[in-house]
Write a structure and sequence with these properties.
The chain has one domain. It is built from three helices and six strands. The chain has helices at residues 29-38, 51-58, 67-80; strands spanning 2-6, 9-13, 22-26, 40-41, 46-50, 89-97. A six-stranded mixed beta sheet has the order 2-1-3-6-5-4, with helices on both faces. The two termini are 20 Å apart.
């Protein structure tokens, strides 16, 4: 999954790809502000985003057969690596693109 933040807001690209999870910032400070409205910054290179927000960003794709199982496997893997906090926030690596 690729979370994309621009000055216009936050969207989810490739919602069926459960092998990667990152945030791409496009647009400098305005994109950083947009990302901060849906998640919490954990330093310059990580955003903590509620898992429920990822489901919301997936939109109707989240209702497809098998999608939730794939998503849950991805979250379990992230949890096992210590990337999910006790409130369900997922730490996502940030890629700066300006």
């Amino acid at each position: 999954m690729l979370v994309r933040a621009t000055a216009r807001g936050v969207s989810l690209d490739s919602p069926r790809d459960f092998t990667t999870l990152s945030l791409v910032l496009e647009g400098g400070p305005a994109a950083e502000e947009a990302a901060g409205r849906v998640g919490t910054w954990a330093g310059p290179d990580h955003l903590v985003l509620p898992a429920s927000t990822l489901v919301e960003l997936a939109g109707p794709v989240a209702d497809e057969t098998g999608w939730r199982e794939g998503f849950d496997r991805m979250i379990t893997l992230a949890t096992n690596k210590g990337w999910v906090d006790s409130s369900g926030g997922v730490r996502i690596h940030v890629e700066q693109r300006r």
